[in-house]
Amino acid sequence: MARPRIAILDDYQRQALASADWQAVRARGDITVFDHHLQEDEAARILADFEVLCTMRERMALPRSLLQRLRKLRFIAVTGPHHRTLDLDAAAELGITVSCTPRVAAGQFATAELAWGLILALLRHIPAEAQNMREGGWQRTMGHALAGRCLGLLGLGRLGGYMAPIARAFNMNVIAWSQNLTEEAARSAGALRVDKDVLFSESDIISVHLVLSERTRHIVGRRELALMKAGSYLVNTSRGGLIDKEALIEALHAGAIAGAALDTFDVEPLPDDDPLRRIPNVLLTPHLGYTVKETFQGFYEATVENIIAFFDGSPIRVLRNSP
User: Which of 132, 204, 250, 269 has the greatest number of CB atoms lying within 10 Å of its CB?
Assistant: First the structure.
C-alpha cells in the first residue's frame, strides 16, 4: 500500500522540520516541504496526490473551490485555534478532517512586541539611519520621543490589551475604541475609551488590533485618515483588509500623515510591484507578528501530535463550525 503524502505548506523560512520531532510522522508517511506560496491553480495541480496538508496560520487559503479539486485529501492540520480562510463546511462535506493547535503561551506577546518595534523604528527613523551607517554616513534625521504622546488603540482585545501597559511605561497617554468596547473594559486595560473620531483626531500613533470581518473591513478609510494629525503615524500588525489601501497610499503621498508601518497586507506575499514598496514614508515587514521560534515550536509540535492521532484513527483538537 502506498504511503500517505504529507505537505507542509508556506514554510518560507524552512523552520517546520527544525521546530519539532517529525520522526513518528516520517515512519508513517512521506513529507514534502513547500517554501513558497502556491496560488490556487498551482496548488490544485501540485497537491493533487497529497492526503495531508499542514498549514502555517492563514498563509494558504483553502476555499471550497480548491478543496473540491484535492480528491485524495483526508486531513488538514492548521496552526492556531482557527483558520478563517478555510471553508470548514466544505471540508466536512468532503470528508476532510481538520485539526487545530492551541495558542502558544510563549509567543503570545510576539505581535505586540513587533508593533512596538515598528513604532520605535518609525519615530526614530531606525531603518534609514541604520542604512546610513552601512553606507558610511552619520546623523541625518531627527526623531520624536514617545513620552507625552498619545497612543490610540483601534481594538483593545487580547492583543491590543498588551499594548497599553507598555505605552504607560513609556509615559504615554492611551486611548482606545472599538465597536463593543466599554468604558470599564478600557479602564481595566489601562486606557480611556473615546469615540472613534476622537481616537483618529487626537492620537499621535494609531495601532490597529482588530479581527477582520465584513463589519471591520476598511474600518480605516479616507474619512478616518483625514481626521488624523499631519504628524501622526499608523501601525497595522493585524490584517491588511482593515485599512483601505488606496486611501492610505493617497494620504501618504499627500503628507496627510507622517508615515505608516505595515506588517500585514490584502495579498500575501506582497507582490513585487505593489505601490506600497515604493513609498518612502512606509515601513514594511513581511507579516512577522507571530513568527518567532517559540510560536513555531509550539505550533509544529502540536501539528505532529494531530497528524499521528489522525493516522491512529482518533483525531484530536478537531475544528468544526458552530451549528
Answer: 204
